[in-house]
Amino acid sequence: MSLDFGPAVALSCRECGARYPLGPSFACQECFGPLEAAYDFGDVTRAEIESGPANIWRYRSLLPVPSDVASKPNMNPGWTKLVKAGNLGRALGIKSLYVKDDSGNPTHSFKDRVVAMAVEAARNFGFHTLSCSSTGNLAGAVTAAAARAGLDACVFIPANLEQAKITMARVFGGRLIGIDGTYDEVNRFCSELIGDPMGDKWGFVNVNLRPYYAEGSKTLAYEIAEQLGWRLPEQIIIPIASGSQLTKIDKGFKELIKLGLVEDTPYKVFGAQAAGCSPVSTAYKAGHDVVQPVKPDTIAKSLAIGNPADGPYVLDIARRTGGGVEDVTDAEIVAAMKLLASTEGIFAETAGGVTVGVLKKLTESGVLDPEAETVVLNTGDGLKTLDVLGGESVQPTAVIKPSLDAFRATV
């Protein structure tokens, strides 16, 4: 089999550094540590990147994809808006605040970035089926990308996900299997399926394709730096599910520094969790290096991973950069969703409510520097999590007769 992963030359264990040939592997044979792509980047310039398409493929020379990736059928996600959030900043007392709004991706979440990478890996390995375990957004991204790429799709989800996410995953075709269990149980089932003949020639985007899939999150770091004028933010708030997104954004910042594409300036990374699923936040506050699994119970279902694989690495990054990890209650999540919508016109899903809620909490407690340039991530569209909004916010302000007198009496 002839493989073309562009600048990626091997898989490397994040724990012991053992290296392996590029393949559909995700765990080190020596220590069972996670494998990730290792590169020989060569010369990469700002001009080369800026001449690329307005999607993640402008960074193809930094990703495990072939040089002609942009010419193949794909969802072409990325280059989403970095919104200067002056109104929200004034409401919270933050001088310079931006929202990286990934709800603008093709299936309205950041998952399109990582799945686009997995599609290229599946093509390279000759897989005919794209699969995953998902808390919702990934399911829709996988079925959409498989449809576009001409692959079969079979996706596994906890059966109690938000209806909008189930509908989105189903409309693109393929099979959507609900499992009576938590995400962690769904993920464990998928790992077992890889070793079964039924899973032969299946690419599980977040299991056996994970070393390639996860690299898609680096594009968030690249875009934020480029959209800020080729510099790093001083503070960034990132939601935590498995923790992979946070670790890869940090990896992306470090790569830009190493390649001389940005100045080596300090940045603080803050992780955000829901209080109903906060194993990383709990470990951080207790000063522990080990993350104890929990059973999730939160409205932020896209972040409801009770045993986050990258949790220990998140702790390392938060402490190394001088950042932190915080959590917010379900009520604070909903309030933050409404705050972001009413100040910036951005309707975030619950995960966005988590990051904005943590932003507010850390600012009020004095942990965040209100004078520092800050970026907060919104990773999905609020239309996917309408069920969490209730009360007056889902009703008209008033219902009146069609007359000026009735309107005057109301306002």
* First and last CA, distance: 70 Å
Oligomer state equals: single chain
**What ranges have pLDDT less than 50 throughout 5 or more consecutive residues?**
none
Structural class: alpha/beta
Specify Rg, calculated over alpha carbons: 21 Å
Largest sheet: 6 strands, mixed
Strand content: 15-25%
In summary, what is this structure?
This protein is an alpha/beta fold. It has 14 helices and 13 strands.
Provide an overview of this structure.
With 411 residues, the protein is an alpha/beta fold. It is 36% helix and 16% strand. The strands form three sheets. It has a six-stranded mixed sheet, with helices on both faces. Helix 2 packs across helix 12 and helix 8 crosses helix 9. The protein starts with 7 loop residues before the first strand and ends with a helix. The mean pLDDT is 95.
Q: Can you lay out the helices and strands and say which pair or pack?
A:
Elements: E1 8-13, E2 19-20, E3 35-39, H1 46-50, E4 81-84, H2 86-92, E5 97-101, H3 111-125, E6 129-133, H4 137-149, E7 152-158, H5 163-171, E8 175-179, H6 183-194, E9 202-204, H7 210-213, H8 218-227, E10 235-239, H9 244-258, E11 268-274, H10 279-286, H11 311-321, E12 324-328, H12 330-344, H13 350-364, E13 374-378, H14 404-410
Parallel strand pairs: 5-13, 6-7, 6-9, 7-8, 10-11, 10-13, 11-12
Antiparallel strand pairs: 1-2, 1-3, 4-5
